[in-house]
Design brief:
One of its GO terms (molecular function) is diguanylate cyclase activity. By secondary structure, the chain is α+β, with helices and mostly antiparallel strands. The protein has 14 helices and 15 strands. Helix 7 packs antiparallel against helix 8 and helix 12 crosses helix 13.
């Protein structure tokens, strides 16, 4: 009778712990399937959507800049005189192929108030040659689809706006009524400008956003929601925009292709965590069973035989690894595995928040820190400055010296930037190909500009040869700075947009300089566009 009781207790204890283990594993599986994995998938979709939002903001900014340039030209006394026939040398003085190429224009058209063609100018998409015409005949017949669509827009009163035309390739079109500079009197006509969404435009946007972008036209109305396509290690996402001037509904889709490495790595890591958790639970239950065997039913020899099969471990805060028995062996083995896992997690965190080439924080970490700095600046409130820095004519550098030298150049520039950022205790990140961004909380505009000057001087001191640069014979940078108080709206994206405008002004002014964003006056656009280039 006394011989059967220990066996019965051992069997009951084993069944109870086994049932508990199965319930715990089932609970982990259910939580993973119904909560964790859907959360990871939702986070991945949110990340992709944020990238689409960034591409859309860049696309909208390009449209707004084109519209601002059209208004600058249209609200100009010289243009007003030209369309009235009082300035015959207007086209010779203001138009050239170089101007069209620099401003990335495809076509410009002047119409009278009745919608008749007054003057046409553009770059022939087939020959690449610059042409001016008074009518869409002969060599200028390629302009006919543009003119027809624009005249239809004038007839339908769809002017002074930005549109997308379904040409091949598609294009963005901006229009404005021609007025005097002071906007007095009646408009004598209309001005249209087009920018083709061709391969050059795609390359420009890819460099600007740092993302691979694709365009396609669809003979359907623009869907209200984005589309996502997951395939292996990549996800393709598309956002749709309505197209104007087409007899049938059409839409333009802008797509991006992103690597799913971060999501798949997180998924794999979580699966490993589940396996480790399940394994740890099994280990604990086995240990309890073994302790029961050691204390109640079997001698210590059985526990010794089991634990001798376990490897060694490292540091232990509870002193278990200092024991010279089986528990000490088990503790040392577990701690070694845990330390290895911690090291892998630390490496994974660094890879997800830092740029692999330069070692600087990447776009993801920069966006997180910007949101935090913005929230603190608004709550305090404190001053907040942001910078956008761009290596001048880096494409020319890559074309001349090769991409390997370009990578080395980026590393040296990043090192110089990081030295200044460390000295002044602010964050600087690589947010694009040759684009860097910085967050400077609690600094005045003057201090921000002084730091910007030190950043440009640090790159000047490197004296990295740049034989093809039209700015200097060595690598230089341009810097745009914006203060939170000067942005159009109290948001992180608005202040970054202001810094981007300041960087644009620095480039337009000849590059290799620091420009502090100044809020525009009422009813005017940016000062860089007040006079046509």
């Amino acid at each position: 009778m006394h011989q059967r009781i220990p066996r019965s207790l051992r069997f009951r204890f084993f069944v109870a712990l086994g049932g508990l283990l199965l319930c715990a594993i089932a609970s982990l599986a259910a939580i993973s399937a119904w909560l964790i994995f859907p959360t990871l998938q939702a986070e991945e979709r949110a990340t992709v959507k944020r990238e689409l939002d960034r591409v859309e903001r860049s696309f909208k900014l390009d449209q707004q800049q084109l519209h601002a340039q059209v208004r600058d030209w249209a609200h100009w006394d010289d243009t007003y005189q030209f369309i009235r026939g009082d300035y015959p040398r207007y086209a010779d003085v203001n138009f050239s192929q170089e101007m069209f190429e620099d401003m990335r224009y495809q076509f410009m058209a002047f119409f009278t108030s009745s919608g008749e063609v007054h003057f046409l100018a553009g770059i022939n998409p087939e020959t690449g040659s610059y042409q001016t015409c008074r009518a869409t005949i002969g060599d200028c017949s390629w302009m006919t689809p543009w003119v027809n669509s624009m005249q239809a827009a004038i007839e339908d009163n769809r002017t002074d706006q930005i549109s997308i035309y379904a040409n091949h390739p598609p294009a963005i079109v901006a229009s404005s009524p021609v007025l005097r500079t002071d906007k007095r009197g009646v408009s004598p006509g209309w001005l249209f400008k087009t920018r083709t969404l061709n391969s050059e435009w795609l390359s420009f946007m890819e460099v600007y956003t740092g993302l691979p972008i694709s365009l396609s036209l669809s003979h359907e109305s623009a869907p209200l929601s984005d589309s996502f396509s997951f395939s292996g290690n990549t996800v393709v996402a598309e956002r749709y925009f309505p197209v104007s001037g087409s007899p049938t509904p059409m839409s333009l889709s802008i797509g991006i292709e992103l690597n799913r490495t971060s999501y798949l790595t997180s998924l794999t890591t979580f699966r490993y965590v589940l396996l480790w958790t399940a394994g740890l639970m099994i280990m604990v239950i086995a240990l309890v069973l073994l302790l029961l065997e050691k204390i109640v039913l079997k001698p210590l020899r059985l526990l010794t035989q089991f634990t001798q099969q376990v490897g060694t471990d490292g540091t232990d805060t509870y002193g278990l690894t200092k024991r010279n028995d089986e528990i000490g062996l088990l503790s040392r083995t577990f701690q070694e595995q845990f330390a290895c896992q911690q090291q892998l997690n630390a490496e994974l965190l660094k890879l997800s928040t830092h740029d692999a080439l330069t070692g600087l924080p990447n776009r993801r970490l920069f966006d997180q820190r910007l949101e935090t700095a913005f929230a603190e600046a608004v709550l305090a409130p404190n001053a907040l400055a942001v910078m956008m820095l761009d290596i001048d004519h880096f494409k020319l550098y890559n074309d001349h010296y090769g991409h390997q030298c370009g990578d080395e150049c980026l590393q040296q520039v990043a090192g110089a930037f990081n030295s200044i950022a460390t000295a002044f205790n602010f964050l600087i990140a690589r947010t694009g190909g040759e684009e860097f961004s910085a967050i400077l909380p609690g600094v005045s505009p003057e201090s921000a500009k002084e730091i910007g000057e030190q950043l440009t001087q640090a790159i000047d001191h490197l004296q990295l040869p740049h034989a093809t640069s039209p700015v200097k014979p060595y690598v230089t940078v341009s810097v745009g700075i914006a203060m939170l108080k000067d942005s159009k709206s109290p948001s992180a994206s608005a202040v970054m947009s202001a810094a981007d405008q300041a960087l644009y002004l620095a480039k337009a002014a000849g590059r290799h300089q620091v420009v502090l964003f100044k809020p525009p006056l009422a009813n005017t656009t940016f000062s860089a566009h007040n006079t046509p280039l």
